[in-house]
């Protein structure tokens, strides 16, 4: 049975049996939408609605064609047959329409916005009038039901739901004073004073601008009442609360000033709270966020964990999860051009955009998605901050990974003038990359620092008097202060021990003995829970504890709560996952000393085996945790396996994110050898394992070696380390062919081809294209086949066979279009690259009109994906064509835009070409220093990659600059130092590279110049 699903409230969409339909023109859409709401309509009514301005015969013909279009797109006839004057849907057709669900059943969740939002058709006044009336009717119904639901929730005590309904109402009708009054009461009841006051000011502005009047006396009186309540609570420590603060007033006031004051008042967007473990940093943040009003801002709080120090952007991933959950109820729209790229770093943002965007347009492995995604992630925060203030809280940044530290510094710098606030906590000891972050942030006035200290003698007295008044004596306080030195968490442990031991004289003066005593009093089950938690670097997720301890969840929950009450554990909820951690590192340290090595290893292996069941092939698989637990558990084979898989997973994004992990459990970084040193360590580990493992493992070890070599080869080719890269690829190809691994063979041939493209090595490119094509049947319906077709066309282009090039490119485009069955645009960049090469073929034939058309096509396809690698290449090629065709002002704009893209996205493919052309324009404008800087940068890039194409064009443009200077009679040393003194040598130098390329204008000009000098 056919099923029609229509969403007409908001942006309209219609699906037939799960497939979204797209009608060819607006009036056919309008006819279908009208029918879905009315269900039965006379044909004459439809003609009057949509074709009133045409004669009867033409109108009837248009109506029949619209009906035909609907049937064709649905691939099904939905209308009752045999009716000449009426049009209605078949009774057996199952129709779900949100308009009817809202109108007939009163379902508030069905209302997603105005009817047929942004839907416009021309020359249909009757339809426009009907649509306007219907929109108003539905909105009035929605507002009436919202107001009723708000009042019902308010009087029943459900303030959260009442606030939601009230905000929905006010967003649609900000002039309804009754709704604003009720919403102010609701916010005030939740101590959201700032939000209530903001509602009043918004009402004042709306009434003044629209009617030139002020709010009613009752509303104004409520406003002043709320202001008084807010003033009495702000900056005041609430001694009546269930939380008590000792000795932290100064830091609290600094926090409140940062969060409540204006940006002009405090200047810096960030605050660092520094102090030893256990001084109460987390407690202070809990207190502030619970006792004070932050209802007007988006608050995201995250902890950094030791186990994630080598997991790039781990705390920011948690922030993004919170961010999405917070803005979802607010219906805040983030532009797709920001969301799509950012998913490369944060897949949690938009599941529908989780696609592989790694292919590049120029067939160079540029690996630049990291920088694009990072910039777009910051733009997401910027977009939200323009509508809603943001407060980010990062706890324990001494365990923050280097990538997150870089992003935090960029966040503070880029968004410092927007309504964002960042609070960080940190211990006194931190790694070098965090030290660099803090030093830079403070020196650039991005962050202010403050230190929290242990309790003083007087504060310790107050603490003991409050928590153990029945035992508090001056002598006891002196002893307690001597033992704990005012550390809040140790104080809690000591006071709990006093509750458990009747005789205070038995309390040891050594904090370690206090904790050992408390641990010895635990039941065997409680001890086993602590043993299990101790093998985690940070909190232990409850589901893993349940698995490795094989206990009933309710029983385990009871044990954890008992340990929590004894102040040995704390409970946390990271990304909505329940977990438990030690309340102090000292407890874990002492427990670790008491455990047996064999017992710890067994627990580590159990955790690792559980984590293996969670692997899904996702970029965020728990590889680092698997490495840690298998290494600590003594399983070096599994540790090596996940090191290699982790390396490959991160290399798919960008080499800046490669986790360089040591083989021990401390995750210490390598020295200056960096990634190359890490590759060597892994190869050494592989050799050792190969010498000791036999049977089935040897097959997997061979596969892991191939994965390792592929990642290493890609890295070397990408960075211009060609000697090492080619040697690694040769080894990889031999092993892949011996193992019959055709997929790896195909990928290896592609890496050779990328090298050959960069160096214009025709023989190598031809060899590996032919070798790769031998696997045609295997990869016929894969993206790799489309890539090989495009590369075949590129080889023809490089040989100057332009018609053959275009034939191959068309085949490549067709292949990628067939692969993109769901029309998601996943292969848009591949198609855009092929169009760009076609444009290049026409440019080299000097058919500029056709080349411009295909450059436009490349840019259109690429733009559909948002801002991704490749755009700069297209604009550079477009600029060259425009320059050569005489449209130099347009060419300059194209080159300048390309330069902006190169610098923003850290690309370099063809960058020297754009730089050298811009240098020519600089000389024409008399900006010689800028020209010299650009030319030097161009030559530096050319030297790094070794492309004769880039170098040839750069030298050609340096010759053009030389000629311009001579014509003007100028001597510019910083420019003249970039080329040989002899003109003949200059021309010969350029032709040495240009003769490696297909015939082109630049070669002819340089040959003519050389001939004139002879």
Any overview of this molecule?
The chain is an alpha/beta fold. The strands form 4 sheets. A 5-stranded parallel sheet has the order 8-9-10-7-11, with helices on both faces. Strands 3-2-1-6 form a 4-stranded mixed sheet. Strand 1 and strand 2 form a beta hairpin.
List the helices and strands and how they pair.
Blueprint: E1 3-7, E2 13-16, E3 19-20, H1 26-38, E4 40-42, H2 43-50, H3 56-74, E5 86-88, E6 94-97, H4 98-105, H5 125-155, H6 159-172, H7 177-189, H8 193-211, H9 217-233, H10 249-260, H11 263-266, E7 270-274, H12 281-291, E8 298-303, H13 314-327, H14 336-342, H15 369-385, E9 390-395, H16 402-414, E10 420-426, H17 432-443, E11 447-451, H18 457-467, H19 474-484, H20 488-500, H21 511-520, H22 524-534, E12 540-541, H23 542-549, H24 553-565, E13 569-574, E14 577-582, H25 585-594, H26 597-612, H27 623-632, H28 636-651, H29 674-692, H30 696-718, H31 722-739, H32 742-759, H33 762-773, H34 783-799, H35 802-819, H36 828-844, H37 848-863, H38 871-884, H39 888-905, H40 911-924, H41 928-945, H42 948-968, H43 973-976, H44 983-994, H45 1001-1013
Parallel strand pairs: 1-6, 7-10, 7-11, 8-9, 9-10
Antiparallel strand pairs: 1-2, 2-3, 4-5, 12-14, 13-14
Helix pairs in contact: 1-3, 5-6, 6-7, 7-8, 7-9, 8-9, 14-15, 16-17, 18-19, 20-21, 21-25, 23-26, 26-27, 27-28, 28-29, 28-30, 29-30, 30-31, 30-32, 31-32, 32-33, 33-34, 34-35, 34-36, 35-36, 36-37, 36-38, 37-38, 38-39, 38-40, 39-40, 40-41, 40-42, 41-42, 42-44, 44-45
